[in-house]
């Protein structure tokens, strides 16, 4: 196979610091000390690909849009496009992390949506059979646009904050497995939302494209909005709170009902921290959550409808460090669970993902619970 590999180096940078994306916010993300997410996600998918099939021929763009990560995995790629902006390599990232330098954001660059489209057009000119990209919904839309006049399929490695589209694998490792194993393709939707509206608490996904995607069990579903009454569920959570426990409350409409039952409005699409009647943080970043946590902590989250993700989609502020300092309680309406076969996590920490896997109790009413497996 001749595989086109593209990395959006700024995808997901704004997540843990509470920016809910990087559209128009790259400079602010840098100032807040945001770290790149995409290079490590690229490293994981390419390392797995090297294990599964080191003979794959890879076409890519120059650093930081793919070439550095591809070479680090042991491949000898054909570089067919060079981004105009300054590049930062995998080695630069490691040097920055080891030095503790926070003045620059390793892996970041001035690459643009035009770079993405032009790189993919160069892949097409070099006869790739599949485009594997690392990014979010905006990257997916740009890749799909560049492929619109072709029959070449695309496959996403999720690295954005708001991964709504059904063209992504559920994890970097699953993406590599799909590349090696798929034998047919199907049409799937590329969705995106306006990040400014998203930051203001409004979610209106827009269909951006319909793209060819490999058919496999490791693909995530499109996000669906949950239905069903959550008032009793919220009442059950509120009636059982412990005054000594700090509660870290995730985003979403189900969680909004719980926040209301606790007596505050909160952030509809952000993470809030509450203890014994006091709101400690609203729309908090990872650092703000850690600062507000106490000796005894519980994270309450609701899975994304249709996808089943508990961590890793829409709530990157709930980082591995935050999760490791808390118990986890999962809540969901009955109708949301009816559409799910399993729950999923994608925390950027494979060891933590493995620790979280297994059977999980999910509150669906004031007293009722169901058991669902995290896979």
* CATH structural fold name of the largest domain: Rossmann fold
* Largest sheet, spatial ordering of strands: 10-9-8-11-13-15-16
Q: What order do the SSEs take from the amino end to the carboxyl end, as H and E?
A: EHHEHEHHEHEHEHEHEHEEHEEHEHEHEE
Mean pLDDT: 85
User: Cα-atom Rg, whole angstroms?
Assistant: 20 Å
Annotation field: number of helices: 14
Number of strands: 16
Q: How can the largest sheet be summarized? A: 7 strands, mixed
Which quaternary structure do these chains form?
Answer: single chain
Overall geometry: elongated
Just name the CATH architecture of the largest domain. Answer: 3-Layer(aba) Sandwich
Terminal-residue CA separation: 29 Å
The helix-and-strand class reads: alpha/beta
Helical fraction: 25-40%
CATH class of the largest domain: Alpha Beta
Number of domains: 2
β-strand amount: 15-25%
**Poorly predicted tracts of residues:** 86-108
Biased composition (Low complexity): 98-112
Pfam family, one: NAD_kinase_C
Region (Disordered): 17-41, 83-112
Protein name: N-acetylglucosamine-1-phosphate uridyltransferase
Please characterize this protein's 3D structure.
The protein has 375 residues and is of the alpha/beta class. It has two domains: 2-214, Rossmann fold, CATH 3.40.50; 231-374. The chain is 31% helix and 22% strand. It is built from 14 helices and 16 strands. The protein has helices at residues 26-31, 38-52, 67-72, 90-99, 113-125, 137-146, 172-181, 195-199, 231-239, 253-261, 286-292, 320-324, 334-338, 350-356, and strands at 2-7, 57-61, 78-81, 130-135, 154-158, 185-192, 206-214, 246-249, 272-275, 278-281, 297-301, 309-311, 327-331, 344-345, 358-363, 369-374. A seven-stranded mixed beta sheet has the order 10-9-8-11-13-15-16, with helices on both faces. It has a five-stranded parallel beta sheet with strand order 3-2-1-4-5, sandwiched between helices. Strands 6-7 form a two-stranded antiparallel sheet. Helix 2 (38-52) packs parallel to helix 7 (172-181), helix 5 crosses helix 6 (137-146) and helix 9 crosses helix 10 (253-261). The chain is elongated, with a radius of gyration of 20 Å. Residues 86-108 have low confidence and may be disordered.
